[in-house]
């Protein structure tokens, strides 16, 4: 949100370095005690975000942070159509996972209509003979909302869950968890008076039994890289592979291309409705990337996580009502693909 | 081979957690000996008293339920080797729990299953289960797990107040690596250390000597101090983090060869041997 001289609001999408922002808001206690007002605005002529703290006695502190314009990644994921929905106070879940002492990277969530169980990922505990296997049950009555459409077991990154819970304890709203079957992303959502946050985590896909869509150049490059990683590292390769892949921002580059590929694949199959494309693209994209031509049984987990924050304010309603707006719309014509809303990094 | 035990009392639970954590601090891999009337921890791969070692015994009385069946009727024991930290982490998840259950199970490989039942803050039940991989030790390896049997100590004395002892040893550790421990059978104990620059000496008196210490000092004089020089850091490792209130805390000294610290609380006993330098 920015204002220029003409007092119109522009919808600015930019990114700021975390290392620049964090020190400014570091000492929460002293901030709360001494600061009367905080003003944040942009100076687009200088590509800076200005954060001003107004202290007592007329003291003013100003921070100028450079930003970079960016097109944020958007995920095609509709949490409302998920089969399984849970809602729980973050404190309760955080208390529960403290008991989960395993130091493994991934955790498996197994739900039935009556039970919620977190357990060590089978994948890892089988590889390392000296790993502890843990299982933890949380009664369904601890949840504010517990709706399980089908018995599911999904595996995702534990560290991210812990981080998200730490964050959500700062708000006082319950955290909602939306998920479906393995391979389809999992969403964790917090809706407070002031903040709405959505975290999308990738989940481990099952054995890829579906036929993969035509491989684009990017996909084959990615496979080469994970091949290389698998050959170099011995054990515990899966997690290393995903570290490399996610950190090097491969998914970012991949995503729009995948969408393109998969839409054309679906078009070839004659899938008509836009809604279905929206729902299906994410799942097909997950599967198409899993490497069917590698050693059978090897699984590739893409740690694709992104966060959307919406500050709830009346001016911006129309933009934040649909945080999961699809980036690419299915269409029959090429021109639509090339319009401004679709960008390739 | 069967083993199944359960702890339900708060005090016993805390004690067990404490023992697991102490063992994990002092040894990477430990041996769990399940005997008909107790559970014993000993260091794995122990090669005589050339290195410091911790032995713990948790007697059957600490458990509300204790059932075991050894390897055979003659050899009514089970020896398991496991990573101490796994056990301590699992035990720590039982802080404030209702109960902790230990069981020997087999799930793809032999495991010690630790099952914890908790009541959450709102009074609802919650449970965690940890399966710790263990290795069942063959009979040939059993002898190495027993605590050393020694002649009577040259001097045996009750330890001073734990906190005092710990803070003194802590400060000495900042200055140097060795500490000289001396004691006599008249209730006097001295801790001292010396470097080029500084020498520190702490005197304790009226500590009292255990009545069982029938050991006679080398020259028959009750006043003469028996001494042993040990690695300060090893001593500190044992002293740190001990939050229990031992009913008995004493040390035994073998002149110029060995220091043994013994702590007893209810059904738990810990003994730590530190060889002389």
From TrEMBL, chain A:
Component of the 9-1-1 cell-cycle checkpoint response complex that plays a major role in DNA repair. The 9-1-1 complex is recruited to DNA lesion upon damage by the RAD17-replication factor C (RFC) clamp loader complex. Acts then as a sliding clamp platform on DNA for several proteins involved in long-patch base excision repair (LP-BER). InterPro entries: Rad9 (IPR026584), Rad9/Ddc1 (IPR007268). The keyword Nucleus applies. It is found in: Nucleus. This is Cell cycle checkpoint control protein RAD9A. GO terms for cellular component: checkpoint clamp complex. Belongs to the rad9 family. Keywords: DNA damage, Exonuclease, Hydrolase, Nuclease, Nucleus, Phosphoprotein. It comes from Rhinopithecus bieti (Black snub-nosed monkey). Its main location: nucleus. GO terms for biological process: cellular response to ionizing radiation; DNA repair; DNA replication checkpoint signaling; mitotic intra-S DNA damage checkpoint signaling. It catalyses: Exonucleolytic cleavage in the 3'- to 5'-direction to yield nucleoside 5'-phosphates. It is an enzyme of class 3 (hydrolase). The gene is RAD9B. It holds the Pfam family Rad9. Component of the toroidal 9-1-1 (RAD9-RAD1-HUS1) complex, composed of RAD9A, RAD1 and HUS1. The 9-1-1 complex associates with LIG1, POLB, FEN1, RAD17, HDAC1, RPA1 and RPA2. The 9-1-1 complex associates with the RAD17-RFC complex. RAD9A interacts with BCL2L1, FEN1, RAD9B, ABL1, RPA1, ATAD5 and RPA2. Interacts with DNAJC7. Interacts (when phosphorylated) with TOPBP1. It comes from the Eukaryota. Its EC number is 3.1.11.2. GO terms for molecular function: double-stranded DNA 3'-5' DNA exonuclease activity.
UniProtKB/TrEMBL annotation, chain B:
Gene3D superfamilies: 3.70.10.10. GO terms for biological process: double-strand break repair via homologous recombination; meiotic DNA integrity checkpoint signaling; mitotic DNA replication checkpoint signaling; mitotic intra-S DNA damage checkpoint signaling; nucleotide-excision repair; telomere maintenance. Signal peptide: none annotated. It comes from the Eukaryota. Pfam families: Hus1. One of its GO terms (cellular component) is site of double-strand break. Belongs to the HUS1 family. PANTHER family: CHECKPOINT PROTEIN HUS1B (PTHR12900:SF3), MITOTIC AND DNA DAMAGE CHECKPOINT PROTEIN HUS1 (PTHR12900). This is Checkpoint protein. It comes from Rhinopithecus bieti.
């Amino acid at each position: 949100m920015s204002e220029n001289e003409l007092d119109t609001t522009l919808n600015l999408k930019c990114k700021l370095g975390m290392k620049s922002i964090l020190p400014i808001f570091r000492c929460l206690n002293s901030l709360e005690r001494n600061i009367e007002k905080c003003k944040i605005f942009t100076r687009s002529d200088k590509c800076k975000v200005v954060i001003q703290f107004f202290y007592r006695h007329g003291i003013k502190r100003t921070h100028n942070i450079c930003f970079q314009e960016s097109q944020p990644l958007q995920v095609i994921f509709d949490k409302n159509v998920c089969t399984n929905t849970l809602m729980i106070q973050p404190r309760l879940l955080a208390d529960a996972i403290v008991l989960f002492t395993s130091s493994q990277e991934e955790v498996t969530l197994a739900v039935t209509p009556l039970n919620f169980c977190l357990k060590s990922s089978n994948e890892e505990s089988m590889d390392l003979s000296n790993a502890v296997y843990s299982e933890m049950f949380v009664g369904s009555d601890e949840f504010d909302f517990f709706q399980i459409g089908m018995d599911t077991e999904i595996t995702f990154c534990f560290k991210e869950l812990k981080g998200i819970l730490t964050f959500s304890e700062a708000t006082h709203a319950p955290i909602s968890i939306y998920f479906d079957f393995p391979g389809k992303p999992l969403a964790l959502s917090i809706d407070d008076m002031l903040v709405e946050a959505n975290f999308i985590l990738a989940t481990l896909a099952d054995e890829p039994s579906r036929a993969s869509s035509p491989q684009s150049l990017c996909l084959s490059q990615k496979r080469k890289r994970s091949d290389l990683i698998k050959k170099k590292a011995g054990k515990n390769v899966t997690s290393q592979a995903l570290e490399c892949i996610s950190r090097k921002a491969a998914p970012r580059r991949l995503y729009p291309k995948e969408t393109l590929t998969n839409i054309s694949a679906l078009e070839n199959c004659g899938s008509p409705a836009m809604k279905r494309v929206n729902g299906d693209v994410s799942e097909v994209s997950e599967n198409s990337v899993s490497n069917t031509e590698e050693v059978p049984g090897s699984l590739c987990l893409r740690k694709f996580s992104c966060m959307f924050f919406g500050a709830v304010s009346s001016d911006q309603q129309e933009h934040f009502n649909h945080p999961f707006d699809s980036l690419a719309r299915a269409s029959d014509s090429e021109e639509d693909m090339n319009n401004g809303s679709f960008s390739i990094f | 081979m069967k083993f199944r035990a359960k702890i339900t009392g708060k005090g016993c639970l805390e004690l067990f957690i404490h023992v697991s954590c102490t063992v994990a601090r002092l040894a990477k891999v430990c041996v769990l000996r399940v005997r008909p009337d107790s559970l014993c921890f000993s260091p794995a791969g122990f090669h005589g008293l050339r290195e410091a070692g911790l032995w713990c015994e948790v007697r059957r009385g600490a458990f509300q339920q204790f059932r075991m069946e050894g390897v055979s009727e003659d050899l009514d024991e089970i020896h398991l080797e496991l990573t101490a930290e796994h056990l301590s982490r699992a035990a720590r998840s039982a802080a404030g729990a209702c109960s902790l259950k230990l069981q020997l199970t087999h799930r793809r490989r032999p495991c010690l299953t630790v099952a914890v039942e908790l009541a959450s803050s709102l009074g609802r039940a919650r449970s965690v289960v940890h399966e710790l991989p263990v290795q069942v030790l063959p009979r040939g390896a059993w002898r190495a797990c027993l605590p050393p049997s020694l002649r009577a100590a040259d001097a045996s004395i009750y330890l001073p107040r734990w906190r005092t002892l710990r803070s003194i040893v802590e400060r000495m550790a900042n200055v140097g690596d060795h500490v000289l421990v001396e004691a006599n059978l008249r209730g006097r104990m001295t801790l001292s250390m010396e470097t080029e620059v500084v020498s520190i000496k702490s005197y304790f008196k009226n500590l009292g000597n255990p009545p069982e210490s029938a050991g006679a000092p080398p020259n028959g004089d009750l006043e003469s101090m028996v001494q042993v020089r040990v690695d300060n850091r090893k001593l500190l490792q044992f002293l740190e983090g001990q939050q229990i209130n031992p009913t008995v805390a004493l040390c035994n000294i073998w002149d110029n060869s060995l220091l043994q610290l013994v702590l007893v609380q209810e059904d738990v006993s810990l003994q730590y041997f530190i060889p002389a330098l």
